[in-house]
């Protein structure tokens, strides 16, 4: 049981790291930052996985995302100086694997279903799905971005001397 | 009297050069996706190092820089259009390093300009490397959302195809919105194969994930950073830019699904 959880956490972190490295390459991230981006992404995603899993309190995905992204922001500020890159270079790829893609997809799915169905009760059902998925998705993204950006402003001096 | 006029002319010419350099620097930093707070801090660091007083106004598509020596009424103003060089953290990091290099080593304007021009010529990451890594990243994304191995493979292939199309269209200088629409349509149409031919157990996850590599994450994150720093105009501008691209990619996804007649509604 304990082993299964550990394997899941490791697997979650590993795929988050691959995703972070891949997406950081789209934004022309310096190669020296790849490993740090991957490790921070793995840590962030694993924290969220642990916080949302039933074995560890089962926190709602929105506060869990905020806490994980705050941890990502702090780690990015701490490690940015080592690779001589601005903190956002480290935390941006780390946030991407936490973007709630499936909620966004279901929002669009529900929107199209709303447009397609005119019957009141069916429309109401899809409208509920639209509102639920859209709100969850928006608040997760907002929480992610605010959570990761706040440490940059909290540790301003450290953040803006990273490239020195 | 003549010497004073001559000195004043030299001062003004030097100020013009400094203002032009700072405006070029700030506009390139803005173009490569730096936040407003970073642009301000870096440019001010350079101005302090050059021994001039400085003010900056960052607009969504332009940067205004004003420099003066003692009297703000005699300030020299330079403004530059933000270049459309695409998001580049490599440029961002190099330009930030340059500001510290100039400040710590007391480099003059000529040396700073020389280094700046060298940085400006920095090549982007290899396109094949980026293509392969993006494919892997999106396939990993699919796994994180609960997709099986077949879904991961479908996402990998559709991402390679869609991202390559994006690269080709951007190289041809096509409109970025059209590029996003076409790339998402292409990826969605390819990944819909899982649904149509009943391949794998999670075809809907493959379809939903296949376009996520197009989400403009950097502008979204930068817009929040700008809002926190009270650069509302830039913040909203970046947010709207990103929102328009998101709408384009969603439209491409929906068009792909509708065209292939997927029965999900």
Write up this protein.
The complex is a heterodimer of chains A (164) and B (265). Chain A has 164 residues and is mainly α. Chain A has one domain (2-99, 141-160). Chain A is built from seven helices and no strands. In chain A, helix 2 runs antiparallel to helix 3, helix 2 packs across helix 4 (87-95) and helix 5 (101-116) packs antiparallel against helix 6. The longest helix of chain A has 35 residues, at 120-154. Chain A starts with a helix and ends with a helix. Chain B is built from eleven helices and three strands, in the order H-H-E-E-E-H-H-H-H-H-H-H-H-H. Chain B has helices at 2-31, 36-50, 89-105, 109-120, 127-144, 149-171, 176-191, 193-196, 203-209, 217-228, 232-259; strands at residues 53-58, 62-68, 76-81. Helix content of chain B is 69%, strand content 7%. With 265 residues, chain B is mainly alpha-helical. Chain B has two domains: 2-120, no CATH class; 127-259, no CATH class. The chains are: A mainly alpha (164), B mainly alpha (265). The interface between A and B is large, with 53 and 55 residues.
Estimated radius of gyration of chain B: 24 Å
Radius of gyration of chain A: 18 Å
SSE order of chain A, one letter for each helix or strand: HHHHHHH
- What does the largest sheet of chain B look like? 3 strands, antiparallel
* End-to-end distance of chain A: 47 Å
Strand percentage of chain A? under 5%
The portion of residues assigned to helices of chain B is: 55-70%
Estimate the helix proportion of chain A, in percent: over 70%
Spatial strand order of the main sheet of chain B: 1-2-3
Note the gap between the termini of chain B.
84 Å
Into how many domains do the coordinates of chain B divide? 2
- Which ranges of chain A are low-confidence, i.e. pLDDT below 50, for 5 or more consecutive residues? none
Number of helices of chain A: 7
The number of E-state strands of chain B comes to: 3
Largest sheet of chain A: none
How many helices of chain B in DSSP terms?
A: 11
Category by helix and strand content of chain B: mainly alpha
State the secondary-structure class of chain A. mainly alpha
């Amino acid at each position: 049981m304990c082993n299964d959880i550990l394997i899941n956490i490791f697997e979650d972190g590993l795929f988050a790291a691959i995703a972070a490295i891949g997406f950081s390459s789209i934004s022309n991230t310096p190669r020296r930052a790849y490993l740090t981006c991957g490790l921070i992404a793995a840590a962030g995603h694993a924290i969220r996985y642990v916080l949302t899993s039933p074995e560890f309190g089962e926190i709602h995905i929105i506060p869990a995302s905020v806490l994980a992204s705050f941890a990502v922001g702090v780690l990015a500020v701490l490690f940015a100086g080592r690779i001589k890159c601005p903190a956002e270079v480290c935390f941006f790829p780390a946030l991407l694997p936490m973007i709630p893609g499936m909620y966004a997809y279901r929002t669009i799915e529900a929107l199209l279903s709303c447009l397609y169905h005119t019957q009141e009760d069916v429309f109401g059902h899809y409208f509920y799905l639209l509102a639920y998925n859209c709100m969850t998705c928006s608040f997760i993204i907002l929480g992610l971005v605010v959570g990761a950006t706040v440490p940059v402003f909290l540790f301003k001096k450290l953040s803006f001397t990273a490239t020195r | 009297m003549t010497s004073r006029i001559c000195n004043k002319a030299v001062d003004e010419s030097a100020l013009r050069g400094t203002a032009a350099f700072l405006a070029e620097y700030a506009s390139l930093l803005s173009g490569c996706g730096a936040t407003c707070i970073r642009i301000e801090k870096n440019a001010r660091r350079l101005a302090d190092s050059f021994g001039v007083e400085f003010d900056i106004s960052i607009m969504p598509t332009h940067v205004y820089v004003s420099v003066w020596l003692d009297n703000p009424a005699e300030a020299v103003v330079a403004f530059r259009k933000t270049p459309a060089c695409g998001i580049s953290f490599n440029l961002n990091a190099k330009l930030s390093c340059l500001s510290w290099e100039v400040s710590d080593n007391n480099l003059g304007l000529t040396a700073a300009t020389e280094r700046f021009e060298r940085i400006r010529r920095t090549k982007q990451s290899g396109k094949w490397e980026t293509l392969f890594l993006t494919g892997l990243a999106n396939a990993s994304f699919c796994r994180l959302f609960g997709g099986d191995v077949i879904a991961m493979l479908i996402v990998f292939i559709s991402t390679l195809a869609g991202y390559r199309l994006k690269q080709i269209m951007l190289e041809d200088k096509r409109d970025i919105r059209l590029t996003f629409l076409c790339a998402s349509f292409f990826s969605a149409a390819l990944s819909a194969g899982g649904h149509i031919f009943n391949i794998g157990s999670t075809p809907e996850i493959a379809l939903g994930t296949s376009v996520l590599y197009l989400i403009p994450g950097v502008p979204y994150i930068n817009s929040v950073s700008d809002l926190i720093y009270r650069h509302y105009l830039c913040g909203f501008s970046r947010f709207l830019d990103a929102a328009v691209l998101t709408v384009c990619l969603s439209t491409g996804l929906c068009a792909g699904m509708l065209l292939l007649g997927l029965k999900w509604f």
